[in-house]
Amino acid sequence: MASMPVGLLRTAGALVLALAAMPAVPAAAADPPSVVIDSSESSPGVIRLTGRFTGAYDVNVVVNGERIERARVSDPDADDIGTWSYDLDTSGMDGEVEVYAKATAADTRYGTWSEPLTLRVDNPRARAPEVSIAEPADGARLTRPALVRVNVAGADVRTVRIRVNGGPWQRAAGARGRYVALVNPAKYGDVMASLEAEAVDARGHVSRSPSTYVALGAAKKERPVAHRQDRAMWMWEKASYNLVLNPGSRRLLETVLAPGSTLYLGVDTYAGRDMIDDARPELRDLVAWAHRRGMKVHATVAAGTRPPYLGALARYRDRAVREMERVLDYNLSSAPAERFDGINVDIEPYSLPWFNSAKPDVQIQWLDTLRAMIARRDASGQPLLFGPAIPRWLDTSACCTDIAYGGKTATMAEHIQDMADYVAIMDYRDQADGGAGIIAQAAGEIAYAERLGRPLSVVVGVETLDIATSGDPSSITFREEGRDALEAELAKVYQAFSGSPAFAGVALHHYDSYRELPTIWGPSARWPEPPADSGPPTGVGSPPEAVAFDHATVDLSYGRAHDDTEVDHYEVHRSTEPGFTPGPGTLAGRARGLTYTDTGLLPGTRYTYRIVPVDVAGHRGPASGPVSVTTGTTDLRPMVVDSMAVTVEGGVARVRLRVVDKESGEPVAATVRGRFTFSAGRYVTVKAGADGWATATSEALKQPTGEVGFAGHRLTAPGRYWAGAYDKDRSVTARW
Question: Would you state the pLDDT for residue 30?
Fold first, then answer.
């Protein structure tokens, strides 16, 4: 993106900010979806950012690629045109900070982004040391005792340490930014090694250097060897941390993944934990267990940013490289049986709105980032397979063809296949045949891998996720069709590609959604039997905390529960009675992970919450203690769905619902947006009449048996908001 003009603003608290200048221009209703940052106001340690949005909703602020925060929005006319604000706490920041506003386009439900705003924060109290290893150089061979020289820039540095292959920290001696420590290769044997340095200042700031990779003694680098990855499974952090921290979860995994399959294990930080750093013994035990079952384990990483696709950009490339080094350093610190077999890389920068319009800028940055990650693998000498996840259209879409890179003009798919050991195609369609089917969409990558002479280098991935309210069509997932249909279509894929040496197998996205997928929806639905379970889970590991975001939203967090198999989910119970006992009438929702956002509440109301863990056998653990919070105030009036029915007739499903004022019961002519569920997936937008009634029809239902429900997504009306927590008939379905 083009750089923007900046101006200087000095704020209280010794913060100097450079702000992108943006004129305030009233938005017109006909404008395309957009979100902009207009201005800022400063106070000690806080910058208030304000802006506008048009044809959009759900504004978030992306802060320096580190976190995504919700903004407060005002759209009293309910026309997806309004203003937003966000208070950015800069008390812990120093240096250059890049900020974006990000919203959801109302027409497509995809993201729309603002131009970036660059802040330059001069805050010495938040300034951490900068540490790097000056010697030995990356790739050096150490055969005798050698000094590791560390450079540190920063004030009041109190401690500098180094470590080899994740071992004990060794204090370095020195002063005024120059430190040394002695490393004796004989202590470690003939191994490849990672060297890390750490500096701590008087204020407790801890900084670590990039890793330096060296050969000790007669160590030799190893090259990766391709292996079959059939029935590979992506597992994201809500499930992967259970698998690492709750050994009983392996018993459930055994019912899903057969011996010989491959696990793409999400290893990002989650809920304040970092499995690679602070749960390393447990992670080693898991990987060794998987290897004893004949499985392979690939660490799945993104790019060290929030959202992950920012890591493809040059500005954030060092974070993507650091993600790579986290896995490499873990492997070097672990015994051979405890090491990852590969790295599955899921960055997806095509999610950036300017991916197409700025061609080939982002495409080349993405390729450079992947190449930099591979270079670190090669420097470490570790035989990990490197496999990016790529979309099925990377060899055909106009955004990704005719890309000049590395002295060659080719498609993005070909460039990535040239450098990677394998690709996992996100070949997300719900049918194998046809021009847009799974087989045709993977044929190009299979053929190119054959021309390269690269066996077992193409994995064909399919989707089972409930795509919910995303902008993607329901045709990308087998969620509606069920497991029997999935297997029937995959049989065609195996038949088409079984003769190709390049075909490495099929991957399923993802573990939790696949477990939830029945054979077919409806009266004859069946799910795999969970393993035997001897009793209920424990209570949550730490008491719940609740924060009211606004008049209708409360954010909850709590500690992990444990079980002899798997904690499947957490029931969130809500009441306006402080001393309530959890029961069916207080169930507000279910969460797979350790956070839950409760929406559609009433303003100025004190709510009390309790959390109940539930295992895969349905056993409920003890309820947590209560936590109470009061929602904010608003001038908007709450509206609810007072009645809803779903019917099936003539090969389609119909939903009929009525929207009323929560207090008076008077009908509201609201705009209703939502989608059909289970056997159907169509997203609809309908307008309720003056009587509050709205009707919508699903896509054609092709299954001989099934079940359909309807889930509201957005209900809007001028001067009102949707108090969905008080809707009636939310769980009604129709079966046939």
Answer: 53
Dist. CA 47–CA 41, nearest whole Å: 6
Q: Which residues of the chain have pLDDT under 70?
A: 1-30
Residues 140, 70, single domain; the answer is no
The 3 state secondary structure assigned to 539-604 is CCCCCCEEEECCCCCEEEECCCCCCCCCEEEEEEEEECCCCCCCCHHHEEEEECCCEEEECCCCCC
Distance in angstroms (rounded) separating the CA atoms of residues 708 and 209: 54
The CATH number for 564's domain is: 2.60.40.10
C-alpha to C-alpha distances, 285 to 269, 566, 609, nearest whole angstrom: 18, 17, 36
- Per-residue pLDDT at 42: 80
C-alpha distances in angstroms, 472 versus 110, 111, 420?
8, 12, 28
The three-point CA angle 472-483-229 to 5° equals 85
Beta bridge partners of 299: 265, 343
Question: Is 530 domain-assigned?
Answer: no
Q: How far apart are CA 58 and CA 60, in angstroms?
A: 6
Coil vs helix vs strand at 15:
strand
- Candidates 596, 546, 601; CA nearest to 571 is 596
In angstroms, rounded to a whole number, what is the distance separating the alpha carbons of residues 201 and 407?
46
**Do 209 and 147 fall into the same domain?**
yes
The residue type at 620: R
β-pair partners for 196: 163
If one counts every other C-beta atom within 10 angstroms of the C-beta of residue 462, the result is: 24
Place of tokens 């980032």: 369
Token look-up 């050698």 returns: 146
Write out pLDDT tens, residues 280-290. Answer: 999 999 999 99
**Final residue before a domain boundary, out of 608, 630, 652:** 630
Residues 692 and 602 in one domain: no
Burial of 279 (C-beta count, 10 Å sphere; 0-12/13-18/19+)? middle
Identify the CA nearest to 329 among candidates 164, 564, 451. Answer: 164
pLDDT at 34: 96
Ramachandran bin of 197, using left for φ above 0, alpha for ψ from -120 to 50, beta for the remaining angles: beta
Residue 584 falls within a domain, yes or no? Answer: yes
Whether residue 527 lies inside any domain: the answer is no
pTM surpassing 0.85? yes
Tally of structural domains, the chain? 5
Q: Are residues 240 and 166 in the same domain?
A: no
Q: Please tell me the predicted confidence (pLDDT) of residue 18.
A: 39
- 8 Å CB contact between 708 and 678: yes
Domain end among 467, 496, 515:
515
Q: Cβ distance 465 to 509 under 8 Å?
A: yes
Contact 733, 707 (CB under 8 A): yes
Neighbours of 9 (CB within 10 A): 16
* Domain containing residue 460: 232-515
